[in-house]
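Quick log. Single chain, no ligands specified.
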Amino acid sequence: MDLGQMRTRLRRDLHDEDASSYRWSDAELDRHIDRALREVSQAAPWQVKATLTTSASRDLSLTSLAGLIVIEAVEYPVGQYPPIYVRFSRWGDTLTLLVDQTPSAGEQVYVYYGKLHTLDGTTSTIPAHLEDLAATGAAGYAALEWASFATNRVNVGGEDVAQRYLTWGGELMATFRQGLARERSRLRRRQLYRPASPTASQATDWGP
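-> predicted structure:
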């Protein structure tokens, strides 16, 4: 589904298909789609792999990883079977390998990370099972925007049109938030590497 198809679907969901009197402009819908897509990306990022090169240091720059959300695993040294995932830490745009020996210059490091999804006029990285979620979030934002706009205005739909959009938008956003929570839960269960520090647990005592 590309951006045009997502926009068409959103107009259908919003009952805004009369091209002669659109309630929302394309630019407005694109803004709501982008906002929802960013939230979907935070919950279920686009999974990609990048190759970084060491410079005789445990530190590597992450500035080349556009749209970076989360680093899921770091493989070093590369080309081993099974793969060797090492512990790491991240501070800002710097990734530090928590290894005993300092890597030599020119060694490869594979970084498995999550990044923002893309959606434009020709391509999309949104998995099919997340398209409904993204559309629901965009519709919720659009409905809430219209509710705010319609407040204290004369509306052909009646005096309570703003309240109806507010209620509907709230229901859509509740569904959207529930879907995001499910995706975050799936993300937390996926683990390829041993974290730098133990995950907090209410059932485990890590000691002093």
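Confidence is low (pLDDT under 50) at residues 154-158, 198-208.
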